[in-house]
Specification:
Length: 141
């Protein structure tokens, strides 16, 4: 089974919420937008999936609508950030730290134009500005 086809399992810090997901490959991306930095305390390092995410422990899951198009989930018991997902479709960004296993590769950064000056990553990555992200991923109107 190739990396793209592997199911991955992860959990919050206290284990109350568990997830199983088939990621879109092994790429890890960093989001530098102001919302992700406020939510995570720094850039959000995440994997993506466009498949259903199987969630166990939904009684401990809290979902916050963070914009007109997206919402964020976290564990109400330990506070672990669990996902950013689009309200339409199946796209999820899941913090890579939830998953112990993986041959992850840091490959892309989005909202690079919002990255503060107090940190930099050494990896060579694909970089997109906020307007480039919206142009690439915005649903047709």
């Amino acid at each position: 089974m190739s990396s793209k086809e592997e199911m991955r399992s992860g959990a919050c810090l206290c284990g109350a919420v568990r997830m199983t997901v088939k990621p879109n490959g092994t790429k890890v991306g960093a989001c530098h937008c102001g919302m992700c930095r406020k939510w995570s305390g720094g850039p959000l390092l995440a994997i993506d999936t466009d498949s259903d995410v199987a969630i166990e422990g939904e009684d401990a899951l809290t979902v916050f609508q963070s914009s007109d198009w997206a919402e964020r989930g976290f564990c109400s018991r330990c506070g672990t950030h669990l996902f950013y997902r689009l309200r339409q479709g199946l796209h999820y960004a899941l913090p890579v730290g939830l998953f112990d296993d993986g041959d992850w590769v840091f490959a892309e950064q989005i909202f690079i134009d919002e990255k503060p000056t107090y940190y930099d990553f050494a990896n060579a990555t694909e970089n997109m500005t906020g307007p480039e992200v919206f142009a690439k991923f915005a649903p047709p109107q």
